[in-house]
């Protein structure tokens, strides 16, 4: 009976450790800047993002024009080409990367706030929104610099210096059920420290409850479960799920909706990459630590057997 109870306590301790490790990763993704920087850093160099941003920024820039100020059809192509040139120049400028990362960081904080609203019942969904303000503002500046030469001076003159722009990304988990699920996971992840404390308490209780000769095997059970969890993480990386992630190849002049989809796919791919990197960084130490615990359990059992046999 004591061996069964101690084994169950050690299994509970292992599960709590795994929950604490996973929770700490989720908490770091949701509440720290490091993962956000990793996700954002490579996006401006992605071909799909470069194809998606010009029509999106153009759409947001046109939204800034006063109501009742139509854009002549003859200038549509000129404005689109000017936007494409301006955005490309901004993407390659030294000032854009810090502004882009700061913008994505603001998007992360806003998304976490929306998740809290969902959990508190103040909202039903938490849409994923990417801020494009820094890019749109710098794009407008570039457009204004060359507007007269392109015949766009009349439009550039009425555009504001600072543009507030955002685009809602079409990502999985932003519907009502997905938002509720993610909000609960992010909230629960904040208690990973308590899970770790309870894991230590359960492990000590398991060793105290076990018979002296059973302490080694009980300890090895905990290490073995940790190793199995780490191996699963290393051999089965997190994927896009049932939707099968496919980042579309950018074509010539995607529409606003197509551009938003391209941008959403690129963000989704980078999120998956960063999450898998985080899981791998946690799985390797857990595998090593679990292996050490298994060896320690075997050694303890051998020592106990030798002592009992005289």
Walk me through this protein's architecture.
With 310 residues, the protein is mainly alpha-helical. The chain has helices at residues 2-31, 33-41, 47-63, 73-91, 96-119, 133-150, 153-156, 176-189, 192-209, 215-235, 256-308; strands spanning 128-131, 166-169. 73% of the residues lie in helices and 3% in strands. Helix 1 (2-31) runs antiparallel to helix 9 (192-209) and helix 5 (96-119) crosses helix 6 (133-150). The longest helix is centred in the last third of the chain and has 53 residues, at 256-308. The chain is elongated and about 95 Å long.
N-C termini distance: 27 Å
Query: What fraction, in percent, of the residue positions are helical?
Result: over 70%
Shape: elongated
SS-based structural class? mainly alpha
Low-pLDDT segments: 241-252
The largest sheet has its strands arranged as 1-2
Average pLDDT, to the nearest integer? Answer: 79
Total helical elements: 11
How many strands? 2
Please report which band the strand proportion falls in: under 5%, 5-15%, 15-25%, 25-35%, 35-45% or over 45%.
under 5%
Taking the sheet with the most strands, its summary is:
2 strands, antiparallel
Radius of gyration: 27 Å
């Amino acid at each position: 009976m004591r061996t069964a109870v101690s084994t169950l306590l050690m299994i509970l301790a292992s599960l709590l450790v795994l929950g604490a490790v996973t929770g700490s990763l989720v908490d770091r993704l949701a509440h720290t800047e490091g993962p956000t920087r990793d996700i954002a850093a490579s996006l401006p160099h992605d071909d799909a993002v470069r194809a998606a941003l010009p029509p999106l920024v153009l759409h947001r820039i046109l939204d800034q024009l006063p109501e009742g100020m139509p854009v002549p059809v003859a200038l549509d192509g000129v404005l689109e080409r000017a936007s494409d040139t301006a955005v490309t120049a901004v993407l390659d400028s030294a000032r854009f990367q810090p502004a882009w990362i700061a913008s994505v960081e603001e998007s992360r904080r806003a998304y976490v706030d929306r998740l809290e609203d969902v959990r508190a019942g103040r909202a039903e969904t938490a849409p994923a929104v990417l801020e494009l303000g820094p890019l749109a503002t710098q794009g407008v500046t570039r457009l204004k610099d060359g507007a007269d030469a392109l015949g766009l001076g009349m439009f550039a003159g009425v555009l504001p210096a600072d543009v507030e722009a955002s685009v809602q990304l079409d990502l999985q988990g932003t519907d009502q059920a997905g938002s509720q699920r993610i909000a609960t996971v992010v909230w629960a992840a904040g208690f990973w420290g308590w899970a770790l404390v309870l894991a230590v308490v359960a492990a000590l209780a398991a060793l105290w409850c076990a018979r002296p000769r059973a302490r080694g095997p009980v300890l090895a059970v905990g290490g073995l479960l940790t190793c199995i969890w780490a191996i699963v993480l290393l051999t089965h990386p997190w994927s896009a799920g049932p939707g099968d992630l496919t980042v579309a190849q950018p074509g010539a002049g995607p529409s606003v909706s197509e551009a938003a989809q391209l941008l959403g796919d690129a963000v989704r791919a980078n999120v998956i990459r960063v999450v898998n990197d985080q899981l791998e960084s946690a799985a390797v130490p857990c595998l090593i630590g679990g292996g050490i615990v298994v060896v320690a359990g075997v050694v303890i059992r051998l020592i106990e057997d030798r002592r009992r046999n005289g």
